[in-house]
Amino acid sequence: FHAEALARVSPGLVRGLVLVDPSFEHDARVRIRAAAALTPLATAFGAFLGATRLAKAAGPLGRRMVLRHTSRRDEAVPDGVVRSVYGRGTVIGTVIAEDLAYREMAADLAGLRERRPFPAVPLVVVTALGDVADPARRREWARGHERLAAMSPHGSRIELPDALHMVPLDRPDAVADAVADAHRMEESA
Asked: How far apart are CA 46 and CA 66, in angstroms?
């Protein structure tokens, strides 16, 4: 959401954009905006986990559980580094706060799309479909990414049928190729 918003709000700062398996919400509305009120609670919960040292166990375990479903690769980062980052309560609190704000950020971006055009810069959308089992959901995810790519007259989409969501871990070559494609398009424009 943030990269697209930057391109729309400050187009002079963006010469091209690569979105790697981005979120796409076709119905991004929220009835109640609670993230601002709940974020201090998430922060306090993270501080509690840090103070009680529960974060040292919960954070790395949570990361492993998420990666088990979003990456085919074994742990790419040394255990000490994972513990030093995800073992901090502030990180856990921040992750919770971001999750709480997700729908609101999606709605804010939908509103921004109505008010600000996407700049005519190269846009490459990388679509990972390996973690979407249902054929109808696969088509819906791919169509959403096609709509994202169509935001720019220089938009394109790369489909990775077997890659999971953490494309930078599983397919860094595809990310590098997408960046190179965007750069080539920008140079030829």
From this structure: 18
